[in-house]
Amino acid sequence: MLSGGLVGSRWLDNTDLTFEYEVADYIITLTKKKQVCLFDTVMRLASTTGFGGYGMNEYSALRSYAAAARKQLAGDALTVENIIAGYRTGSDGSIIPTSLPEKALTKYFSSRSRKLRLADYIFRNSGDDMFCFVGIDDSTPQISIQTNEINYITSLLGANGSLFTGTDELAMMCFSRLTTDRLGTLSVSTEYFGGAENQAADSFDVDSLAVCLEKHYDGMRLVRADDTGADLHVLVLTRPVTDNNAVNSQKLINAYKKYSADGKPVAIIDISGDPATLANRLIGSGADLGYVFGYSSWNTAANSIGISLSNAACRLAHLKYGEADTDENRAGFVRSVVFSFCKDIGYKHGAKSALDSYISSLGGNTLNYYSIVTPAVERNINAVFEKAMTASGGFCARITKALEKSSLIAENMRKTAFPKVTLTGFRLPWYRTFEAAFDITVS
């Protein structure tokens, strides 16, 4: 990771980059000895809520300001200095009005400049021996302060990198890219359910859903194939344009049943905005869930795409190219599947609401409740979390039961018994409820 993805690099504003350039030089020297996959981000429109004094009001004001169109640069005019010089001005060259204090703007521009200069340095000097994933974090479909940065970095990457909207999934995609580079390529087919594939992926993306998915495929070196010849079948539930989400969910489940009956691995990506519908119907379908090699409905469309594809591609490449499938390998894959379902549905669409209510009742801010934390408060919060996640009849109990009745696909695509899993160690390590952690014991 070049310089922090989700929080730190949005806040660092130093102008002396001597140390950072030394780190970049070190990374470049590693490419002479090892295969290197680097990831970084185009800085998001606004900084993290709950961090550095930023609440939702500050976040919204800064995001609105950054989303205003800037003059677009091209050719010889597309330079680092010209991009930075245009941060304050709109597409007509006039100063963009804002109520944000000058101190906040100066810090924001310094953070953007730092990330852009560092990306410029390493991507211009890295040569052909390093593959780079660059994620656009918290973006917008229209021209914004990010657009010139995106175009400039894209021109530097060429064939040695992939730039697309999404950040949470970048490290996982690095692992997937390294895995397929080492073992061999995989082919994929795609089916959409819902009809929104040619619309903007979501309000945080710069591309349509279909383009976003294709960019993830390209970055992971996944080869397109037809329905009959693909190694991996990617099923995408979109926002409902045709029919409704329940109908579209059932169509996806029917497709999954067909592939699983034929022994074909599947990656499921749910960006419908109502993922509990598909997940609950999938549990109740009676289908063997062992062929779900990847699942995600996490956060943005791009996040869900990258997480599901990465898990599926790593496992499938491992099985297809004949590496020894050890107990450790199988347990790791089991954890990835269980974590995806329980985090995305059991937590985000279940336990999180209980935690939000409890923390708010203590006077805490769910975006950052560190100010109320004592050892006793933390124990109580974790206890509320555990109770919500392990409730009899709750989603996590039902999905683990459904998985334990399913197969675990091992070497040579052989069916084995899915192991028993236990969830423990519930915690909120960053003192906010947006994301959570828990341990998964595999028997």
Give a short summary of the structure.
The protein is of the alpha/beta class. It has helices at 8-11, 18-30, 56-67, 80-85, 102-125, 147-157, 170-183, 209-219, 245-261, 275-284, 301-320, 327-361, 375-390, 395-404, and strands spanning 36-42, 130-136, 161-165, 186-193, 222-224, 232-237, 266-270, 292-296, 407-409, 415-417, 421-427, 437-442.
Supply database-style keywords.
15% strand; three-stranded parallel beta sheet; five-stranded parallel beta sheet; 46% helix; 3 domains; 12 strands; alpha/beta; 443 residues; Rossmann fold
Describe the fold and architecture.
By secondary structure, this protein is of the alpha/beta class. The chain has three domains: 8-167, no CATH class; 177-323, Rossmann fold, CATH 3.40.50; 346-442, no CATH class. 46% of the residues lie in helices and 15% in strands. It has helices at residues 8-11, 18-30, 56-67, 80-85, 102-125, 147-157, 170-183, 209-219, 245-261, 275-284, 301-320, 327-361, 375-390, 395-404, and strands at residues 36-42, 130-136, 161-165, 186-193, 222-224, 232-237, 266-270, 292-296, 407-409, 415-417, 421-427, 437-442. Strands 5-4-6-7-8 form a five-stranded parallel beta sheet, sandwiched between helices. Helix 6 (147-157) links the parallel strand 2 (130-136) and strand 3 (161-165). Helix 5 packs parallel to helix 6 (147-157) and helix 7 packs parallel to helix 11. The longest helix has 35 residues, at 327-361. The model has no long low-confidence stretch (mean pLDDT 93).
